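Before going further, it is useful to explain how the protein records used in this thesis are read. An example of such a record is reproduced below.

***
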Amino acid sequence: MAEENNQNAGTGNQAAGQQDKPQLQFALQRIYVKDISFEAPNSPSVFQQPFKPKVGLDLNTSSQQVGEDLFEVVIKVTAQVTHSEEGTTSFLAEIEQAGLFRISGIEGAQLEHTLGAFCPNVLFPYARECVDNLVNRGGFPPLMLAPVNFEAIYAQKKKREAAQAQPQGEQPTQQ
């Protein structure tokens, strides 16, 4: 019954002339692990000494359009933990956490911001949980990654791009 009401309401809006306006739509279609890897190259000797970890973390995001109004966003998390005194690798965990997002009615810089900051914010808790679970299954203590501010990362990226573009544009005028 509720579905019929919603369908009728949609038909009424179209009759009112709202069909010409681009309708804003943002919907998460699916969350999935695209790639996962775990290595403990120095086991079992790594378990025979006190665990004194030094964590190195690398984080990257990417996005691509995979269909009409359908975008894939991927967060790649690489955590390399070494023994703080010896420098030997305890483990290396790599995860590519991905999501499919249906986005319409958003274009240009706003779409770029949505794909570069908002979507990764949605996906990151899943990536954190996946890394923690993977490390724990590898026999190591949990590795709880700190929350990440993708808004700030996106702003820094845009600032770097603007700084790189500006000298290139200024050089020909100076010559």
In short: The helical segments are 2-15, 108-137, 150-174. The first helix runs from residue 2 to 15. The first strand starts at residue 25 and ends at 39.
